[in-house]
Structures are given as C-alpha cells and as structure tokens.
Amino acid sequence: MSTSSGVIREIDRGLLRQQARTATPFPHVLIDDFLDTGFAREALSCWPSYSDAAKMGREFRTINERRKVQVTDSDRFPPTLRELTAVLASPEFIDTASAIFDIPSLLPDPELVGGGLHQTGPRGRLDVHVDFNYLEDRKLHRRLNILIYFNEGWMPEWGGQLELWNSDVSECVHSFDPIFNRCVIFETSEISYHGVTEVRCPDDAVRRSFAGYYYTKSAPTNWAGESYSTIFKARPDESVKNRLMALKRTSDVVKGRVKKVVRRSEGS
Q1: Other Cβ atoms closer than 10 A to 4
Q2: Tens digits of per-residue pLDDT, 140-162?
Q3: Does the keyword RNA-binding apply (predicted)?
Q4: Where are the alpha helices (DSSP H) in the chain?
Q5: How far is 124 from 61, CA to CA, in rounded Å?
Q6: If pLDDT is split at 50, 70 and 90, which confidence band does 222 have?
Q7: What region does 99 belong to: left with phi over 0, alpha with psi -120 to 50, or beta?
C-alpha cells in the first residue's frame, strides 16, 4: 500500500497482519522507513523547537511524565506535519490499519487528544502505563496507537527507548530505539503497558515523535464495561517511585472524596 500522495511507503498488509497476530506481549508492528524519506526529512526540518512547542502546547512536569511537550492543535502545525496528520487520517491508511489489526470501522481523532507532536528533552521520561480507553464526550473506544519517530543520528546510549511490558509489568518484552522514520503501531487495551526510558541525549538535542490514536464506536469484544484514564505502574526496579505513586493515588482518592462532599454541599 502506498498513499496517492506518496507520503507513506508501500506496506505489505499480509506480512504485518501476521506479525500483529503473533506479537507479544500484545498485538503490535514495527515498520522502519515508514514514510517517504524526502517527506520525513522535510517534516523533521520544519519541526518546532522545544521552546516554541512549549508555547504552542503543553509541557508535562509530573512524577510520571516530565520534560515533555505535547502539541495537539494541528492548525498550529507546519504544513508538512499537517499533511502527515491528514494522511494518517485518510480512508486509505485507516483501511490498511484495520486490515492489519482486524479492527473494522476505525475512526481517526481530528482533535488528536493525547497525540500530535511530542518532544522530550534531556532527563525527560514517560513512565510505564496503559492509556485511557474511552472518550466519554464522543462515546468512542480507543483501539490503536501509532507512533512515528523523527530522530536522525539517535544513539542507543541516549535512552528514550519505547518499552513494551507484560500485563503485570514484571518484564520488559521489547525495547525499541526511537530512530528516524521508525513507526510502531499497537493495540490499546487494559494490558498494553508501555513507557519511555529516561532520555539522556545531549543538552542541544530532543526526542521527537508524532502520535495518533484510532477509535471505534463499538466496544472491543472483551471490554468489561469500565472506562479509565491513564494508569501508571512502576517498573520492578523503581521501588521508591512505587511508594510515591501509591501516595499520589491515596491523595487523589482523598481529593475526589472532598470534591464529592463539596458538590453535595453546594447542591443542598
């Protein structure tokens, strides 16, 4: 498969479908040289700097996600990145993704909730997690993640690897370097734990990725009826962070109860 614009290189649906079916710890595919090389370099050349992206979007500074900027408003993207957004939302590519993962009636997200342009600076990271599974306002079930990397000359020792973990986060099954023009697509589910190792690139470098998500109106066949937001889990060697995360969860529960009391008081 290649798009009419020539943005995405030819894809062997049958081969990737087989890879997705047999992949562990959950269905996924890795595609190198995903985009036309010239287009990928053009996209990289117009990528906003970290500081400019921070002005355009949102910067994360939490215990689980730090030194990361996200820009979701595609109207603010440079033209080449707007074109990439449109191609990934095209019926042609969606049909290919549906065939690979055997998920009919996929829908793109024009709002790029949680997606768009991502940049992570030195000492940044994204801890292991499963993504939110439902958009309540639009009644949509999240089904696929697509990640495309724009990091020329990225060295393994710079970290920033995408990790895929097993269901109880006891074992990292795969670790992928975020090298230039690499694409990873995986199913979103209650067991699709993934994260990014600490970025240790030089101070004048950043880790760049483009993220998109696909949804369906119908629920997955194994859906238990529970919607949830992003759930983080500590890696086995992160005992201190595990305690901090437990404290945060307790604090969030307390805050939630206080809000309920306030709402009841205001409504009385």
Answers
A1: 8
A2: 999 999 999 999 999 999 999 99
A3: no
A4: 13-22, 37-45, 50-56, 79-88, 91-101, 239-267
A5: 9
A6: confident
A7: alpha
Residue pLDDT, tens place only, 25-35: 999 999 999 99
**E strands within the chain?**
28-31, 58-61, 65-71, 107-108, 116-130, 134-135, 140-149, 162-165, 172-176, 183-187, 194-196, 207-216, 231-232
Nearest CA among 173, 244, 182, 234 for reference residue 207: 182
**CATH number, span 13-235:** 2.60.120.620
pLDDT of residue 264: 33
> Which residue shows structure tokens 């009419």?
4
How much is the pTM?
0.89
Taking the alpha carbons at both ends of the chain, their separation in whole angstroms is 61
Label residue 143 exposed, middle or buried (CB < 10 Å: 0-12, 13-18, 19+).
buried
Give the position of tokens 């993704």. Answer: 97
Q: Which two tokens stand for residue 228?
A: 């949830």
Residue 1 and residue 145 in contact, taking contact as beta carbons nearer than 8 Å: no
pLDDT score, position 239: 66
- Alpha-carbon distance of 146 to 210, in angstroms, equals 8
- Residue of 222, 174, 178, 230 whose CA lies nearest to 199: 178
